[in-house]
Amino acid sequence: MPSSNFPVTTVQQSRLSRVDFDNLGFGAIFSDHMFSMVYADGEWINPEIIPYQAIPLEPGVAMLHYGQTVFDGYKAFRGLDGEVRIFRPEMNAKRLHDSCRRLCIPIMDAEKLCDIMIQATRQLIELDHQWIPSHWGQSLYVRPLVIGTEATLEVRAATSYRFIIMTSPVGSYFTNLEKGVSLRVEDRFTRAASVGGLGAAKTAANYAASLLPGFESRQQGFDQVLWLDGNEHRFVEEVGAMNIFFKIGGKVVTPPLGGSILPGVVRDSVLTLLDDWGLPAEERRIAIDEVVEAFRAGEVDEVFGAGTAAVICPVASIGFRAEVFAVASASPGELTQRLYDEITGIQYGKLPDRYGWNVRVPVPVAATVT
Ligand code: COI
After folding, report:
1. Over the stretch 306-360, which tens digit does the pLDDT of each residue have?
2. How does pLDDT run across 147-161, given as a tens digit for each residue?
3. What is the Å distance from ligand 1's center to 297 Cα?
4. In this structure, how many other beta carbons lie within 10 angstroms of the beta carbon of residue 182?
5. Class of domain 16-174+350-361
């Protein structure tokens, strides 16, 4: 049952004319409006759409100290027909719900949260539809965020929260998509504990843990970190901004979900497509030694990442200790390209939405994708 329309306060003056749609980057620009809701006295109240704005926070807010914050990310696309489609938002709502539970945030039930997120996103898109870029590869990134807002230095769950959904017109997350990204295997630091940790939650702590290794990777000339398990630093986990897939000796393999990696929406879409194409992926533990051996034997056909921001991202090379292994196929590999074409084809309405992944939002046709 969809929620009814939320009350709207519109901006006095739009910032749209200041946006350079040819140079969007990723996540630096925020559209005119945001959704806001608060949790106080044991209930979620005051859902509304308001101008995007700074939010008042006391320095004593526990979230700033102890990290009780979760977020998610999904995208809306302006299609070839001018229609706007949101890609699988109900999966992000479910994940946000699970992240809240893990961070002890008293979230509403999953179905209600999903209804609210989709309705809020629809309204934001209707209001800010001119912020949706119109080039292939660009989209409106939707970022829900839930934070504890109680000022207390006690280490416990907050008694008050704010739920915000903001939107941001974006280009691609990685700039070198054509030639593929380089990954450095991290065997000293850990992104998330193997068992019982926060790895499956989209929460600040996992990203905070990734900053120093990410910085070191870039200093060494790599784009991103390839994480290993927190227990033994032996098994491949994920990349932080995306899940990872290998095509080795003709078979596709990806690490299984198990609480330590993020249950990616694009990951799930890839698994569905591969099943349909008769190339089912094996979800199993992959030792980094197995990957290295496969590289040495010339059996690594393709490596790619899958994520909302990253879409399907070819990996060109992997650095492990003193060695750098180049992926054999000229980047992007055939399967990587096919997955990219299929997923973006569905997202931009070029291909039939055979799985019912898109939620359509009617907007005046201001522009079509080019
Ligand atoms: C996403 O793919 O939506 C992410 O959250 C990855 C990154 C931008 C944090």
Report:
1. 999 999 999 999 999 999 999 987 679 999 999 999 999 999 999 999 999 999 9
2. 999 999 999 999 999
3. 33
4. 21
5. alpha beta
- Residue reference for tokens 């829900």: 144
Ligand 1: does its nearest atom lie under 6 Å from the Cβ of 241? yes
Tell how far the Cα of 71 is from the centroid of ligand 1, in angstroms. 9
CATH number of 181-331: 3.20.10.10
Residue ranges per domain, the chain? 16-174+350-361, 181-331
**Closest ligand 1 atom to Cα of 27:** 8
CA distance to 170, 224, 254, per residue, from 305 (Å): 19, 11, 10
309 lines ligand 1 (CB under 6 A): yes
pTM score of the predicted model: 0.96
Q: Is 308 near ligand 1, meaning CB less than 6 Å away?
A: yes
CA distance 122 to 44: 20
Distance, CA 308 to ligand 1 centroid (Å)?
A: 6
Ligand 1 centroid, distance to 349 Cα (angstroms):
23
